[in-house]
Amino acid sequence: MSIDDIRGAILSDELAAVGSIGTPKTYQGVVVRADEQEMFAGLASKDKDPRKSLHVQDVETPEIGPGEAIVAVMASAINYNTVWTSIFEPVSTFGFLKKYGRYSELTKRHDRPYHVVGSDLSGVVLAVGAGVTKWRPGDEVVAHCLSVELEDAAGHDDSMMDPQQRIWGFETNFGGLAELALVKANQLMPKAQHLTWEEAASPGLVNSTAYRQLVSHHGAGMKQGDVVLIWGASGGLGGYATQYTLNGGAIPVCVVSSPEKAEICRRMGAELVIDRAAEGYEFWKDPQTQDPKEWQRFGAKIRELTGGEDPDIVYEHPGRETFGASVYVTKRGGTVVTCASTSGFMHEYDNRYLWMTLKRIVGSHFANYRESWEANRLISKGYIHPTLSKTYAMSEVGQAAYDVHKNLHQGKVGVLCLAPEEGLGVRDHDLRAKHLTEINRFRGI
Ligand SMILES: NC(=O)c1ccc[n+]([C@@H]2O[C@H](COP(=O)([O-])OP(=O)(O)OC[C@H]3O[C@@H](n4cnc5c(N)ncnc54)[C@H](OP(=O)(O)O)[C@@H]3O)[C@@H](O)[C@H]2O)c1
Fold first, then answer.
1. Minimum-distance ligand 1 atom for the alpha carbon of 255
2. Which residues, 6+ apart, have CB-to-CB distance to 111 below 8 Å?
3. Ramachandran area for residue 376 (φ above 0: left; ψ -120 to 50: alpha; else beta)
4. What is the pLDDT of residue 144?
5. Residue-wise pLDDT tens digits, 410-424
6. Using a 6 Å cutoff on CB, does residue 395 contact ligand 1?
7. Atom of ligand 1 nearest to the CA of 238
């Protein structure tokens, strides 16, 4: 009954045996520690180093509850939320765990002096709790990160509206950057058969978020022909937003910060790309004052590329630094759809450009159960592809999160958990061969 027995059974394809091995009492997970919450006090965000705060340590396996599953995690990925957790910004995630711990007898398990982080996984179901019938030990799965209780009618139409909505591995404990993970069985979805463990683990959070933000009627409701301005178009979210735009017959205008990133956008099929570093946009004259002339210069560049058209949709997440420009350049009647504020959450924009030209700002957050399922279905069918650029071992997770914090990465950064090496887990070799170029387009840049 050891982790090695579980890994051995998976690697030798004895999946039917996985359920009979039993659940180990402890496992290795990537954690932040409550007694280190103040370790970066007084430092600027950029100087807070995830390599110092993320640790790989033994943790106790939580007892499995009704409707839950424990998954043997083969691979996971870095999301920006793990960067936020590791630098204890904008708040320490131990507050989330304490609050969740007060919700019920069962959720008390989440309130611990350590937080096992991570909101993506691919792996094999090890055990299921009472009442779970759809999934069995031995099933190859990925997990989306929407944790909801669904006891309240508010979430019954759109599960993101549940008052107890949380992001698993960020606002709950026992996340995916670990050898084992605890999820609600409703988070489980089939693993794409043509992908390796690390490729399959990498789309989850950002792919589902981009789907809701751009495609779903809950987000911007993009349609054929729309011009879509995409910030960070080769990053975690942007790599999917760009694919959805092209898939849906719309026209992406990709914003990136280097020729290498511009090249990735072109590899995805985008033709209109702005290198914001080369153009040298300075939307802020000083930390308090924006420069509308720079918004105009940016808007003129977009029109130059589109033949005079403004964006129907602006795909926002950088936040404070870009939001004024985003509202300005959006087409009359168009939509700014935002899911984040990486550079600061106190946004400032000139409201005259919003109301006089009838624009909308739409808030979007992760994705509901159905949207997550649809986004995963598109991955499984080979319509949307992973954007994995690099994979680290779990012991190097600090460096992986550091790369994302410092914007040194492309697309997604993967982490091997129980998988001993890259390249394992593929079942459908024909579908893989068909899409190999697309699967690898973020590699080696
Ligand atoms: N609400 C949700 O459900 C949700 C889901 C996923 C992510 N998020 C949030 O969304 C944000 C982005 O996540 P991600 O996974 O896409 O991160 P990412 O992989 O770091 O990509 C973001 C990209 O945005 C661009 N960018 C960063 N700062 C910028 C700035 N000041 N001005 C212009 N562009 C900037 C960068 O691209 P270039 O340098 O190439 O321009 C960067 O690569 C994070 O804050 C994350 O927490 C929210």
1. 41
2. 97, 98, 100, 101, 102, 173
3. alpha
4. 98
5. 999 999 999 999 999
6. no
7. 16
Sign of CA dihedral 394, 424, 241, 183: negative
For residue 400 and ligand 1, the question of a CB distance below 6 A is answered with no
Rounded CA-CA distance 236/115 in Å is 23
- Going by CA atoms, what residue is nearest to atom 15 of ligand 1? 236
Phi, psi of 147 (to 5 degrees): -105, 115
pLDDT in tens, 305-349: 999 999 999 999 999 999 999 999 999 999 999 999 999 999 999
C-alpha 226 – ligand 1 centre gap (Å): 22
Residue 219 Cβ inside 6 Å of ligand 1? The answer reads no
Q: Residue 444: its pLDDT value, please?
A: 79
Find the helix or strand (DSSP H, E) in which 440 lies: none
Distance (Å, rounded) from C-alpha 295 to C-alpha 322?
Answer: 9
pLDDT for 1: 67
Q: Which positions of the chain have pLDDT values less than 50?
A: none
Q: Whole-angstrom Cα distance, residue 164 to residue 155?
A: 9
In the sheet where 26-33 sits, what is the strand order?
55-60, 26-33, 114-116
Give the DSSP letter of residue 64. P
- Closest protein CA for atom 14 of ligand 1: 236
- Among 166, 294, 346, 407, which residue has the most ligand 1 atoms within 8 Å of its CB, making it the best to mutate? 407
